[in-house]
Amino acid sequence: MRLLTIILMDGTVFAAVLFLISVGLTLVFGVLRILNVSHGGIYAFGAYMATYLAIKILGAGASPYLTYLMLLAGAIIIGMVTGPIIERVFLRRIYGSDQHITLLLTFSIFLILDDLLKLIWGTKPMFVSQPYTLLGEFSIAGIPYSWYQVVLIVVSIVFGGALVWAVRGTRFGKIVVSVINDREISQAIGINVNRIYTVSFTLGAFCAALGGALIAPTISVTPGFALDATVLAFAVIAIGGMGSLEGAALGALIVGLLRALAVHLLPEADLVVIYLAMILVLVVRPEGLFGQVELRRI
Amino acid sequence: MRGVFKSRVGPWLSLLAVGVLVLVAALPTTVTSQARPSGAPAELKIGFVDFFSGAGATFGASGKTATEWLVDKYNSEGGIGGVKLKVVIVDEAGGPDKQVTELRRLALDEKVNAVVGYTSSANCLAIAPVAEELKVLTVVHICGTHRLTEDRPVKYVFRTSNTQASDSVALARYVLSAKPDVKTIAGANEDYAWGRDSWEAFKIAMQRLKPDVQVVGELWTKFQAGEYSAEISKLLAAKPDVIHSSFWGGGLITFVNQAGPRGLFKQSQVLFSTGEQVLQDLKTIMPDGVIVAPRTTGAYFLDPDPAKNPMQKEFVEGHHKRFGRYPDYPAYRTYQAWSGLKAAYEKAIKQAGRWPTTEEVIKAFEGLSWETPSGTITMRPDHQAVHGGIVGITKMSPKHGFAILDRVVRLRADDVAPPLGTKTLDWVGSLKK
Amino acid sequence: MERKRLPVAAVVAGLVLLAVPLVLPEWMKFIVTLALAKFLAVLAVALFLRAGMVTFGHAMFYAVGAYTVGFGAKWFGLRDIVLLVPLGAVLGAVVAALVGLVMARYREVFFAMLNLAFSMMLYGVLLKLYWLLLKLYWLTGGTDGLSAGAPTFLGYAPPREYLRDFLYYATLLVAGLAIYGVYRFLASPLGYYLKARADNEIRIEYSGESVRHVIYVTYVLSGALAGASGVLAAFTVGHIVPEYAFWIQSGDFVFVALLGGFESVPGPLVGAIAFEFIRTYASKYFPNEWQMTLGIIMLAIILFRPGGLWAIYEELAARFGRREREAERA
Predict the structure, then answer these.
(1) Residue A131 contacts B, CB cutoff 8 Å
(2) C148 in Cβ contact with C239 (< 8 Å)
(3) Chains with 3 or more CB pairs closer than 8 angstroms to A?
(4) Which fold has domain C2-329?
(5) Which domain holds residue B157?
(6) Which of the residues in chain C have pLDDT under 70?
């Protein structure tokens, strides 16, 4: 029972991290039908920027509580800068192209972003741990956890909820759904489709950067750490169903719990369990748990 | 085709060099203090291969700064036998097939006289046969797998530092003298050869040196994983006396970052085999009382005491002044490689009485002993160097702003490395107190 | 016009490739050998690109081929390239025949992702096997990898200084056979259906052919190609590591196919050679930014010349040809 509690807790913490990593990816896929490989690069940029700002403000002698604000600021800056640039300059030219074109275009952007990080911030690991330690610790089943881990869980739930509300309950969301369903008709009834694309992609980029910024205090940011996040996010949204917000949440929970189970009961399987889950789900339900079957058009 | 790709600076430089030589020769009095041996090239071109991208870049950065500092120092002192050194930098990232290509390019296109480098075990194993095939002198500075010199005999490849089994044995010896009553141990290592080999050697060494020790947990994390929450919970639940970890670089920083606030270091005695490398990055986050080592390197920036050791003083102060960072163990191991190569060349020049061939340098390298800030290094005939190492326990130093090593113990080469001719794994399996 | 020009170009290209070891310095010869070896895997990926499908997992079969060499040398003392290339191709095809049963049902991103998952599973297994059986005997060498050793040719072990030339011509021969085979496949009804799939799948089924069958056959063929590619690459590089199955390797294959242009068979060849040279020169002149250099080149190709290098060549050739015709007329 105690072990089960620990596994649940660890699994949920990891699920929160995974959700933050992957929600932007599924959002962009849902609206633009693009699997954005550069997502991981934006995520890393968010983490670097947030860490950089937090270190700067601590260096200036400000209250450590301000670092939380800096994390958010880092995410907003990176999201607002990278999103529109990537969408307007690059993606806009290739809408309607084959899937492989979009995959490779975003892969190239990923390569460029990865090296840009090094040029800007160097190769030494950077980290800021104050946001992580400031809130203190608590114990579950005799095992201490950091409150920041709970913050991550809460933020994931609230953020995920807000996104679902934005898509289902607002005018903007209804327009987005209309664009997803039929781009040409939407344009015909006066929707500025280009603007919707830019806004959606920027929102996705912001999600990626926010994920990076919030996870940054628990890790050290080093060159190359975006790579891992990219593949993990792929796995999560493939399991949950690409383009589905609920799917990303469920995928994150499944992967998070499976990995916690593996660590505690079968450490040898830690590496393969995620891909095994992905294969199983895709074999049984190719479109993912929450995915929609695409119509084959004649 | 060749001419097109050749750098255009080369001919001008050599022209300049020849011009200077003619001038020097024409002067009636000998101006140069160092007579150049006959047959000496205009410059000694050496490739330096280390990680400049990916997670390993944190090591490569130290290797590069140490190389820059040292090569500038050598060149200002007249180079090797009066010949200046020229360094060609290559990124080690990109996998073994890229490294094999790069080594060929270095040897056949750049025509380097020697190569220094290789941090990754996979890469050093991949390039060793190529170095033999191309007959290019290769000095491996960091790569830790014992297989490099034990799988098959090498002629052109040398390693100027200890293997990773030495790190595990050194930690086992240290923790048993610091905490003789250890009963339970656990390992948290990365799931690839480096992590697996490190833990395996540590586990066997502990069981040999104290047979009643029990293993209560073996954790395998992903390479440089960002999230250790579940692993830390498991270690907290298992409550081992001692936790061994060969995490490094960014992954190690992340682990300390996440484990510290959750009290892991208070509950168990933690050992980090590469811990010294991240102390300057971790600043005040590294708790006191953690056993850390600069792998099995014979020095870190405070030990031997720079005030008493001029070579150490020059390196530490020079490096810190120029790069704002004290040399860490990759920097010391880079120093060992370059100074070993230089010593071998100088010995070969003396023996030959002229500029030596690569084979003569190799002959001079075998059995050579040379001085470095980290002590005397001896190159055995099997091309594996042996040297002692230090281990210590962290203690915050307000003066430096980060933790330094306290209660430093200096282990002798015999205590951390197998004798010549004994395979590393056999040696670890037959350790005695 | 089309029919006339291509054979001439092919003959010229063949002659140039035959002359490579005589003209190029040793290290470039190595690069071209490696490029030719990888070209087979790129060709496999290009087949799917023609059908409008991307795979991020063909490194799986590439690794199967490479480890065929590693295991063969380690356990059975096999190092004859004439034996191992077909063996690697067959094993690649067998694995593809198994995985393909599942894969033929998928399209688009799902196809790409599922391939990725399978290859990452193999990657994990290659990483692990070392340890699960450590007590008995080490198997895959873990991340440190296995050594390939020098190949023999029908039992003949060439002297060291000619080994590289032998390897080059062997690779060239296999590449030539593969080109011929793929041409034949593309000229068959299946090949045409494959191309047609990119435009419209359902119409193919209306015409009585099962798309799943087309994709399955292509998948098995691509497994064989990538398997042979792995064998040749393993001998060329000399060292085999789990990274052979890593998704970045698969990504490189797709990248190269697009760089050269996947609409034609020579495209991937041009791409493979160009890629190895670009990668080598990028790390020579920009040792710290070689990834970015690759990214920028790729970006430029996609945005300005989506047909790849081969399309650029064809454009130039067409322009040149027109000028010639005009000259003749005048």
Answers:
(1) no
(2) yes
(3) B, C
(4) ABC transporter involved in vitamin B12 uptake, BtuC (1.10.3470)
(5) 2-162+315-386
(6) 1-7, 128-142, 328-330
